[in-house]
Design goal:
Elements (H helix, E strand, L loop, with lengths): L15 H5 L8 E2 L6 E4 L4 E6 L1 H6 L5 E3 L5 E11 L2 E8 L3
Antiparallel strand pairs: 1-2, 2-3, 3-6, 4-5, 5-6
The structure holds zinc ion.
């Protein structure tokens, strides 16, 4: 394991659904093979770190390229962490 990533260190972020439904708080999991990307399989959500300027510019529903290059849409910005802002997103509807 030569590859280390600052972005994948620290606690996993809370799922965005859990943030808004206190009775359903749960954390996302790191996505295999993608440093700095988390996912919640239950809700089909993803999260990754973007810089603060990017997060401030993006609004819910804006297009956001997914980690794998496919199309996604912004769900919302989350907590600041490690100098960036956590951004929740999900795959765009086909
Ligand atoms: Zn979830």
């Amino acid at each position: 394991m030569a590859e280390t990533s600052q972005q994948s260190s620290g606690p996993n972020p809370l799922c965005e659904v859990g943030r808004t439904h206190p009775r359903d708080r749960h954390r996302m999991r790191p996505l295999d093979g993608q440093a700095g990307v988390w996912t919640c399989a239950r809700h089909g959500l993803f999260a990754s770190l973007v810089d603060k300027e990017t997060a401030a510019r993006l609004e819910r529903g804006d297009p956001f390229p997914m980690h794998d290059g496919s199309g996604g849409v912004v769900v919302r910005a989350g907590d600041e962490r490690q100098g960036g802002t956590l951004l929740y997103y999900r795959p765009a509807d086909e």
